[in-house]
Amino acid sequence: MGKQTMGTPGTALKYRTDNKSYKLQTGQTPVVRPPLHNEYGLDNFPNGTNAVVAVISYTGYDMDDAMILNKSAHERGFGHGTIYKTKQINLAEGQGRGRGSAVTHMFGFAPGGLVKASWRATLDDDGLAAVGMKLREGDIVAASHTVVKDPQTGEYTNRDGITHLHRYKDSEGAFVDEIKLIGNESGSNEPCQSVSIRFRIPRSPVVGDKFSSRHGQKGVLSQKWPTPDMPFSESGMQPDVIINPHAFPSRMTIGMFVESLAGKSGALHGLAQDSTPFKFKDQEGQTATEFFGHQLKRAGYNYYGNEPMYSGITGQELGADIYVGVVYYQRLRHMVNDKFQVRTTGPVTPLTGQPIKGRAKGGGIRVGEMERDALLAHGTAFLLQDRLLNCSDYTKAWVCKGCGSFLSTQPAVGQFGRRRANEALRVRCRRCSHKIKGEGEPKNDCWEDKSGQKWAGGEDVTQVAVPGVLRYLDVELAAMGIRLNFKVEP
User: Tell me, which fold does domain 2-80+206-331 have in CATH?
Assistant: First the structure.
């Protein structure tokens, strides 16, 4: 989990231009760490926070690797982090400019052109966003205008007075952290053609964000629990984090139990505990439990790290002593704000009419065969129809009841005699009709196709709601000489 942490990504963060980097605001040095921690200088790169962790099944919100966070710990800054994103605006892009070609664009407002007050809400006099400005989707981050170089004076002049705007496109709000002007490759004194803007996105922990101890005990935040309702010990201590005891038996992460003991005793005595592996032996008097247990005992706590706790809701003592200690918790970079996917309507695949896939493109999540089986097993037939038809590629199509085909139906564009009001809605089956040779056919049965050919019959058609991909399948099979026959019943 160390590689997934939202820790301290480097020393020269001010000078870095990563596309995306994560930084923890409230990093601490771990109480339990190996001796090399100091030699490597890892205190300069904090990776997590020391949290008071209680192992208890409390309220049900800690089921299945979920964890409950003390709301006051969150308000004190536990796990707060920041995302830095860098966006480059290059005026030479798309202009077909090669090396040494003339400058055609410059940053700033067009001289003598219209400058709206709404533009100046986010932009400075230089046409770039003000540092520290909060931006939302669609806000302007830079302004530019076209220029022409005067060959005699060497000055750049704008002729059209039009200001071009560059906007912030992400849906999540951000602050302008820094703007860097990027020079050209030749080192000449040409106007700036490219800027690098770094955005700062604050991310405090929300329900659904991922946390982990250093032992792989990862889980998502399920609830920020109010402090008055948290369980408390006899000394008034309340845990920062509550995790479920069922996380331990099958995984056998005994190291986390030892770290909890060591962190608790280290915090009580002001010691940085040594976490070197294989330091203790499985012999009486030489185990980790005895070593740290005696430290706890000297501080006036239970030898095994257990404490009687009281319900924060009723005030009654809980029926069992609770294992409480200090564990170094890391916030991971997997956040629900980067993963949630929602769609009502949106872009579709042109060929089939079904929703496209991909979160960034506004696509849908596929309901596959196994999901279909689950919905059937639950008896939710209308929900299944909603997912697979109504919210997917619902189309209305004309089908002939006589020959059972989608392909042979076509609109009738004209008829003999007086035109009807619903003329445009008339559809006939070409396969079930016949050409008119004489004047013996009743005029009510006659119709014309788009080429002007006169036909009679083929009225036994109806409109049905089908998936668009069914018609596509019909056409594909017809191209191979296979005709599908559909039985249409009322």
Answer: 2.40.270
Cα distance between residue 379 and residue 183, in whole Å = 65
Q: Which CATH superfamily is domain 82-203 in?
A: RNA polymerase II, Rpb2 subunit, wall domain (2.40.50.150)
Q: Which residue stretches of 299-423 are H helix?
A: 369-377, 381-385
The 3 state secondary structure assigned to 444-455 is HHEEECCCCCEE
Short-list 22, 62, 452, CA closest to 239: 62
Backbone φ/ψ region at 301: left (φ over 0), alpha (ψ -120 to 50), beta = beta
Tell whether the torsion through CA atoms of 405, 407, 412 and 416 is positive or negative.
negative
Give me the CATH topology for the region 341-390.
DCoH-like (3.90.1800)
The helix/strand/coil state of 322 is strand
Give the pLDDT confidence of 277-332 residue by residue, as tens digits.
888 888 888 899 999 999 999 999 999 999 999 999 999 999 999 999 999 999 99
In the chain, ranges of CATH 3.90.1800.10 domains? 341-390, 395-479
**pLDDT tens digits for 200-241?**
999 999 999 999 999 999 999 999 999 999 999 999 999 999
List the beta strands (DSSP E) in 280-438. 306-307, 309-310, 322-331, 394-400, 409-411, 427-429, 433-435
Assigned fold of 395-479: DCoH-like (3.90.1800)
Q: If pLDDT is split at 50, 70 and 90, which confidence band does 417 have?
A: very low
Q: 4, 3, 24: which is closest to 210 by C-alpha?
A: 4
Condensed to tens digits (0 to 9), the pLDDT of residues 37-61 reads 999 999 999 999 999 999 999 888 9
Considering the entire predicted model, what is its pTM?
0.82
CB 327 within 8 A of CB 212: no
